[in-house]
Amino acid sequence: MITFVQISQLLQSAIVFGTVIMFGALGEILTQKSGNLNLGVPGIMYLGGIAGLAAAYAYEMNTANPIGFVSLIISFVAAFAASALGGLIYSFLTITLRANQNVTGLTLTIFGAGLANLFGGMLNAMAGGVGQISIRTTSSAYRLSISNVVSLGPFASIFLSYGFMAYLAIVIAVGLFFFLGKSRTGLNLRAVGENPGTADAAGINVTRYKYVATCVGAGISGLGGLYYTMDYIKGTWTTDSTIEALGWLAVALVIFATWRPLNAIWGAYLFGVLYWLYLYIPGLTRSSQEIFKMLPYVVTIVVLLRVSMRKKREDQPPASLGLSYFREER
Amino acid sequence: MEQTPAVELRHVTKRFGKVVANDHVNLTIRRGEILSLLGENGSGKTTLMNMLAGIYFPDEGEILINGTPVTIASPKDAFDNGIGMIHQHFKLVDVFTAAENVTLGTDDAKLDLRQVADHINEICQKYGFVIDPMKKVYDMSVSEKQTVEIIKVLYRGADILILDEPTAVLTPQETDRLFDVMRNMKADGKAMIIITHKLHEVMDVSDRVAVLRKGEYIGDVATKDTNPQKLTDMMVGRAVKLNINRPEPVNTTPRLEVRNLTVYDALGVKRLDNVNFTALGGEILGIAGIAGSGQKELLEAVAGLQPMAEGASITYRSIGSEDKGIQLVGMTPMQIKRAGVSLAFVPEDRLGMGLVGTMGMTDNMLLRSYRKGVSPFADRKAPKKLAEDVLKELEVVTPSVSFPVRRLSGGNVQKVLVGREIAQEPSVLMTAYAVRGLDINTSYTIYNLLTEQKMKNVAVIYVGEDLDVLLELADRILVLCGGQVSGIVDARTTTKEEVGLLMTKFQKGGDKTI
Q: Parallel, antiparallel, or unpaired: how do β-strands B60-65 and B7-16 relate?
């Protein structure tokens, strides 16, 4: 019998897990709405994670009495900027040079993972000791939550025991919903992703929209990596490929959410629940655990099947997703 | 008193490479008037209008709007001058509503779809449209989509409207409704240009007709002072001597007998209506007709690419075994090939259906022969030899036989395609618009190649758009009109006028097709 405490624990770990992939997915939704299929999400999350960690480490090492809030701002900006730079590389290659989007995205994933692990390994080596860096001040600033300050009941702590980034993800999702659905700029952006020729003829600067959406989208995706290093693994670095696995889950979440930011919120938490469910199922072996970790991908396939069978146009990806736009080829 | 024309074009010229699309065209459009721009395919109607819409920029000449010279360098400049063009291919976002499409790219400060919808309803009421502003485009019929396009330009405040073949996709009832709207807009003082090649529509809706022929401005007449016969004469013009070598056919024998061929398209519209003809070996059968009269469907049906209605029969007899007829109906292209039918097809869409653009000549030759032999590896020597032969004999200009054909000029692409098809030693050779976009010299090379095939007792079917060429190249001309055969005439004795009239023969009545 599963107890309330166990359910509470499951939900809390699901929300933390879900926040990582929600950032990744929200950024990718913004990118894909401009018609760019950026499969570099895992690489970009790596870039965001390592840039935030390195910036915080540099600050903490070079300051006698590091202030958590200052370190938080520095690492946040560094993570966003490094990820947006990844998006800029992708944009330049696919929009300006018209390179194939799939190839470019996959390359970016490989590049981001390699670069981040190189620097992460160096940071760990520099830290000496047990070979594991730790940026306590910054990480605790990220992890500061209401439950640290006020004592909450078990029910309230399901909702209020997280660092600010868990709430930021929801704010971004809601903001994105209003931006895409209600604003003129959002309408223009969707037109670019659906039919760039029409957008162009209507006087919309297709190239600029694609660049900005892809770079900002990458920046948001990168925050997932930042949240992972600062909160999820508490300001450390491990050279395993967890971020990459989470990055692909973020891509799966985009499809699961049918390109709707609000769906990404509950979808992310659902993925989290499914991912951690094995801890609460008794009698699992190491190998049968993995079957449960596969569930998020299974539900994505189920959603894809359902969406394809219903053939509802609103559930489809942007019509020109993955295609380069040349004005001359009318 | 003469009012200032809404638009005046003076000596407007546009060239694409060596081809002159518009040659010193003068044209005026007045307010409260519907002008028909009439001309055959390739006469430069759309090019001329695209210069008003900001898609192309004229090489020479000037454009005056309300008497003031203007520069129209982009679609935005056109909007700013009050010009709105409704293109043949709609520029709409499918998952957007009508209102969202209409407001897209406008300068309105905030996005208030209610207000946009109200404005759309006002426009609808004023001119007699019916549209639900909140309906998604993918749920709309073609006619509704066109309505959205027209509202789009009116919403932006256009008072000079250009409609590029607006009726091509409409049913007769929808066409009538469109014309009513156009008359309402005319009464409102808007200037309108309608591009069409349907003469009865010209007579029906327009006040004045301007005729273009091969990029040249022929003249304009008031609609009430003219009739379809006179307009046809203006459109096709006097016959021009081309001096294409045309030997008399020898030993003509039936190669391809087409009986009761009827084809419906995916939307259930009849594209070919009970077509009957026989193509003879040793002659060139020209096929004339206004674009979209069923030429494409006819060739594709023979090639096994079109589903046909019950009762059709296409009998093929190859060179040397004329007594053995093979029934092609019901066979796929692969089965047709396996049955030993030697059919060559030079399609209209050269780089789409004919060749693979990113591959070189050798690999494109290989496409025809990759199934030959028993080895698991394709034989590359023979295709390479063939590619080199074609390159030499037809004087293809290319850096090498492995250079991507997509990057060759139109004429060279066509030489590669025709060269490959002729190398199959076909019994029937079908070509669609074989010289479209080619310069004079290359065109004559192609004519001579076709004539050479004819003298080898091949049945050559030549779908063309230039009547002068058809009259001098073909032995007989089959004229298609609205999917029906409106006549088969002897090319040596017929006149341009006769063919032109046959091309528009059935248009009064059953005008369901393009």
A: antiparallel
Question: What is the architecture, at CATH level 2, of domain B7-236?
Answer: 3-Layer(aba) Sandwich (3.40)
Asked if the ipTM is above 0.90, the reply is no
Do A199 and B104 lie within an 8 Å CB cutoff? yes
The domain limits of chain B are 7-236, 251-342+429-439+459-514
Query: Taking residues B442-454, what's their average pLDDT?
Result: 88
Task: Locate B9 and state its tokens.
Answer: 């074009």
Q: Give me the number of domains chain A comprises.
A: 1
- A206 is a domain residue: yes
Q: What is the pLDDT of residue B190?
A: 92
Band of residue B275 on the pLDDT scale cut at 50, 70, 90 = very high
Instruction: Give the Cα separation of B33 and B186 in Å (integer).
Output: 6
| Confidence band for A280, pLDDT divided at 50, 70 and 90 | confident
- Give residue B93's region: left, alpha or beta (phi > 0; psi -120 to 50): beta
CA atoms within 13 A on the CB side of B431: 33
**Across A307-311, B370-374, B461-465, which has the greatest mean pLDDT?**
B461-465
CATH 3.30.460.40 fits B251-342+429-439+459-514, yes or no: no
Q: Quick check: is A15 in a domain?
A: no
Please answer yes or no on whether B103 and A201 come within 8 Å at the CB atom.
no
A329 has a chain B CB within 8 A of its CB: no
pLDDT class of B375 with cuts at 50, 70, 90: confident
Segment A109-121 mean pLDDT: 94
User: Residue A173 sits in which domain range?
Assistant: 20-315
A-B contacts (CB, under 8 Å): 56
B440 touches chain A (CB under 8 A): no
Radius of gyration of chain A (CA): 20
> HSE (CB half, 13 Å, CA atoms) of B78?
24
**Taking CB atoms and an 8 Å limit, are A184 and B110 in contact across chains?**
yes
Q: Do residue B104 and residue A198 have CB atoms under 8 angstroms apart? A: yes
Residue A213 is part of a domain; what is its CATH number?
A: 1.10.3470
- What is each CA distance from A82 to A45, A207, A222, A236, in whole angstroms? 10, 21, 8, 18
What integer pLDDT is reported at residue B1 of this predicted model?
A: 44
Q: Give SS3 for B105.
A: coil
In a domain, A2, yes or no: no
